[in-house]
Automatic annotation (TrEMBL):
Gene3D superfamilies, per database record: Ribonuclease Inhibitor
Recorded superkingdom: Eukaryota
Originating gene: Aste57867_3561
Example of a GO cellular component annotation carried by this entry: cytoskeleton
Subcellular location: Cytoplasm, Cytoskeleton
SUPFAM superfamilies tied to this protein: RNI-like
Keyword Nucleus: no
Name of the protein described by the UniProt record: Aste57867_3561 protein
InterPro entries: DRC5 (IPR052410), Leu-rich_rpt (IPR001611), LRR_dom_sf (IPR032675)
Keywords: Cytoplasm, Cytoskeleton
Length: 435
């Protein structure tokens, strides 16, 4: 006679019953009585397997304590299958990292701990204890990133300086104050990247500038993106000068940059440009450099400064150089062109909107012809370059000696016939031409 198969409790009902069990010993006694994987169901079968291995069962119930052991390949998949059903997850793993791109509560009704609503300030006091390494905050609503509710911004502002393990911070909109951001940055020993994209930022105060400058002076900084920020009129000159990158001095810079990319726009004087050049010459990590949109208050002093910069780039590991909108017109290229010829690590050069005409293009063509490492040249926005200048560039470079080459001229006023002529020539030379 075949014994009847005992009915299986629905997983939802079994979970509600087990939630009343006070400790791991009680839980695993029940799971043992159930006997089979089918009777335990997917969630409790995964717990049973975890508890039957080398994992401390007290780390599995009533809270899930994330430890180094639970991150091993044998346990990781099982942990992922059960973690969503826990009301409380605790991280006691020293190397655990968390990236927060989730929503923040907007009222006590959705500020839940163990399914119980608590005051917002208590929720944020608990949240700030998470071992966060990445934090994305936005006040814009879209389909991918939850927005920071207005009512939650004040609470987040107050606890942000307490984050001690953050590595990357990105802020969009006006949700978080700059004071809390820079205060947290100044005290951090781990924060490598700050990306701030504010719709409208108030003028920086003396305290904010001191904190920001302190963080920028540390050797951990890898990336800092911030729009133009006005300063309070009451900021002392000494504090203002320490922040003012246009007065960049070589003694303010490390011997070599640790970050891989640097973007500077409208901030450097000629002397600051020279100081920057000295710092990047021996950098082993930097492979992308953008310096553009200068306020030309110093006239011809920029010409030799760019010569020093290009000379340093030629001796560095920089692979991508963008000097758009720097007014590097024809008169600069008898100096800069020959430097390009020996820049053996350069792969992508952007010279957009510099006022270059055929005269300057002669020097650039000579550099491209000699330096076969360059794979892409962007010349868009240089509207004085004629069809004849482009033909000269294409005809005087031996493109058979390089694997590929892309020439981007962007929008041009060339006629249809002229564009066909250029595309035909480029095709014969195996050059990708964008018109």
């Amino acid at each position: 006679m075949i014994s009847p198969v005992p009915p299986r409790l629905p997983s939802e009902l079994l979970l509600k019953i087990v939630l009343w069990l006070p400790d791991a010993a009680s839980l695993f006694s029940v799971l043992e009585v159930l006997g089979t994987a089918d009777q335990r169901g997917p969630f409790f079968e995964s717990l049973w397997q975890l508890g039957s291995s080398f994992v401390d069962r007290d780390h599995l119930w009533p809270s899930l304590a994330l430890t180094e052991m639970l991150s091993t390949p044998g346990c990781h998949t099982l942990v992922e299958s059960v973690i969503d059903s826990y009301a409380h997850v605790q991280s006691i793993c020293p190397s655990a990292t968390i990236a927060w791109r989730a929503s923040f509560p907007s009222s006590p009704s959705n500020a839940l701990v163990h399914s119980i609503p608590i005051p917002l300030n208590e929720w944020f006091d608990l949240w700030v204890q998470l071992p966060l390494t990445e934090l994305t905050i936005t006040s814009f609503y879209d389909d991918t990133t939850p927005a920071l509710p207005f009512i939650a911004a004040t609470f987040l502002d107050s606890v942000l300086p307490q984050l001690r393990r953050l590595v990357r911070l990105q802020c969009e909109g006006d949700g978080v104050g700059l004071l809390s951001i820079f205060e947290m940055a100044a005290a951090s020993t781990t924060l490598e990247e700050i990306d701030i994209r504010l719709a409208a930022a108030p003028p920086l105060t003396e305290t904010q500038l001191v904190h920001a400058t302190q963080w920028l002076s540390s050797l951990i900084v890898r990336r800092f993106y911030v729009p133009f920020l006005a300063l309070e009129p009451t900021v002392p000159p000494t504090v203002r000068n320490a922040w003012d990158l246009s007065q960049l001095k070589s003694e303010m810079l490390p011997t070599t940059f640790a970050f891989r990319e640097l973007h500077l726009s409208r901030v450097l004087t000629p002397s600051g440009l020279v100081s920057l050049a000295h710092a990047i010459r021996h950098s082993t990590r930097m492979d992308g450099l953008t310096v553009n949109e200068f306020a030309f208050l110093f006239g011809g002093a920029y010409a030799p400064a760019f010569g020093v910069l290009f000379d340093s780039v030629a001796d560095s590991n920089v692979r991508e150089l963008d000097v758009s909108r720097c007014r590097l017109a024809d008169s600069h290229w008898p100096l800069l062109g020959p430097i390009f010829e020996r820049s053996k690590n350069l792969r992508h050069v952007t010279l957009s909107n510099n006022g270059i005409s055929n005269e300057g293009l002669v020097w650039i063509a000579r550099a491209i012809g000699t330096n076969t490492s360059i794979e892409r040249l962007d010349l868009d926005g240089n509207t004085d370059v004629t069809v004849g200048g482009v033909v000269h560039l294409l005809s005087n470079c031996d493109f058979n000696r390089r694997g590929s080459f892309l020439l981007n001229l962007g929008f041009t006023s060339y006629s249809v016939t002229e564009k066909i002529q250029l595309q035909t020539l480029a095709g014969e030379l195996r050059v990708d031409l964008y018109l």
